[in-house]
Write a structure and sequence with these properties.
Helices cover 69% and strands 0% of the residues. The chain contains five helices and no strands. The chain has one domain. The longest helix has 23 residues, at 25-47. Helix 1 packs across helix 4 (83-98) and helix 2 (25-47) runs antiparallel to helix 3. It is elongated, with a radius of gyration of 15 Å. With 117 residues, the protein is mainly α. It has helices at 11-20, 25-47, 56-73, 83-98, 102-115.
Length: 117
C-alpha cells in the first residue's frame, strides 16, 4: 500500500512505517548526506547574505533523498503521503544516526516489515 493510502492516528504510529521505508542502510545514509549537505550550503549562503541559498536545503535534501527511494529502496517517499510527519521523521532518523543508533533503525524497519508484509 502506498504512503498516501496508509492512515496513521499519530506520529508515533507513523514512525515505524517511516523507518521501514528506509530499511536499507544506503537509503538512510543518502538521506543523511543530502540533508546535511543542503543544510550546510543553506547556512553558508545565509551567513554570506545570500538568502536564495536557503533553497539549497530542500532542493539538495529532497533531491538526493527521493531518488534513493526509487533506486535503492524500491518504494515511494513517505513525504508524498505524509509531508509533515516525514520531515519530522527525517530529523529524528538523522539524529539517531548521528548518535550511533543506526542499528536500532534497522531493527525497527525489520520488525515493521515482518509485521506488515
Amino acid at each position: 500500500m502506498a504512503a498516501a493510502e496508509r492512515t496513521f492516528e499519530s506520529y508515533e504510529d507513523f514512525w515505524p512505517y517511516y523507518v521501514a521505508m528506509h530499511s536499507r542502510a544506503a537509503t538512510r545514509w543518502v538521506h543523511l548526506t543530502g540533508t546535511l549537505t543542503g543544510l550546510a550550503v543553506a547556512a553558508y549562503g545565509l551567513a554570506r547574505g545570500r538568502k536564495r541559498y536557503a533553497l539549497a536545503f530542500p532542493l539538495i535534501g529532497y533531491g538526493t533523498a527521493w531518488p534513493a527511494h526509487f533506486w535503492i529502496e524500491g518504494n515511494n517517499p513517505a513525504t508524498f503521503g505524509h509531508p509533515a510527519w516525514s520531515l519530522r521523521g527525517d530529523a529524528q532518523m538523522i539524529r539517531m544516526m548521528l548518535t550511533g543508533r543506526d542499528a536500532e533503525l534497522a531493527e525497527t524497519a525489520e520488525k515493521w516489515l515482518a509485521e506488515n508484509p
